[in-house]
Amino acid sequence: MTIKIYGMPYSTCTARVLATLAEKEVEDYELVPVDLSVGAHKKPEFLKMQPFGMIPVLQDSDLTIYESRAMARYISDKFESQGTPLFGKTAKDKALVNQWLEVESQNYNPCVSSIVYQLVFAPMHGRQGDETVVKQQLEKLEKVLDIYEAHLSKNKYLAGEFFSLADLSHIPYTFYLVNMAKKGDGITSRKHVSAWWEDISSRASWKTVTAKMN
C-alpha cells in the first residue's frame, strides 16, 4: 500500500517529511493536499486522524502517525537499507542524531518558528507581526547559534561527519527564516554555521521539496 502524506508542501512540517522521503529515495507515496484556507484540517474526518488538527499526517497501511519528527524517524527506520543513512551507521551515531533532533525541537525551533510566524505566516493571514516578539526571539536565537558555531567548528554536521536527520530537521524553518523572514544574519555571520547551512540547504532532496512549494 502506498504511503499517504496529508499536508501541503509549503508547510514546514510537511516539508520535513517530504525531504526525508527524498533522502531515503522513496518515490512510492501520495501527497494528499489539505486545504488550510478552508479549514480542512479542522473537519471531523481529518480530526479522526489528527485530533489536534495539524498537518501533516502519515498513513501507511493500518498505521497512522502525526508529528513530523516522529514521521521522519519512522521513514528513516522503515527504509533504513536505502538512500541516505539518516541515523548514521552505529548506535553511537543514532544517539547523537537523536540528541540533536531534541536540541532542534527544544532550543532552535521555538525561536525560529516564532520569528517566522510573526514575519511570514501572520501577514499571510492578514495579521500584523509583533516586532517585540521578533526582537526577543532573535536574542534567544543568537545564544543558541553561538553553541552551534562552537560545535560546528569541530564537526562538519551536527552528529559528526555525516549528514543526518538532525541536520535535515533544521532545513524547513531555517529556509523560511533566511529567505522569507529575511532574518538570516545570525546564520550568515557565523563562519561554520553559514557553511553548514549552505551545505544542507543545497542538497538535492531539499531542491525537490522547494520545487513542490512553487
From TrEMBL:
Enzyme Commission identifier(s): 2.5.1.18
Q: Give the top-level enzyme category.
A: transferase
Residue ranges annotated for the GST C-terminal domain, each copy included: 90-214
Q: Which InterPro entries match?
A: Glutathione-S-Trfase_C-like, Glutathione-S-Trfase_C_sf, Glutathione_S-Trfase, Glutathione_S-Trfase_N, GST_C, GST_Phi_C, Thioredoxin-like_sf
CDD domains from the xrefs? GST_C_Phi (cd03187), GST_N_Phi (cd03053)
- Gene3D superfamilies (UniProt xref): 1.20.1050.10, Glutaredoxin
| Keyword Transferase among record annotations | yes
Q: Where is the GST N-terminal domain?
A: 1-83
Arranged from A to Z, the UniProt key words for this protein are: Transferase
Q: Does the keyword Transferase apply?
A: yes
Q: Which reaction does it catalyse?
A: RX + glutathione = an S-substituted glutathione + a halide anion + H(+)
* Pfam families with a match to the protein in the record: GST_C, GST_N
Q: Extract the PANTHER family matched here.
A: GLUTATHIONE S-TRANSFERASE RHO
Family stated for the protein in its record: Belongs to the GST superfamily. Phi family.
Give the protein's recorded name. Answer: glutathione transferase
Native source organism of the sequence = Sphagnum jensenii
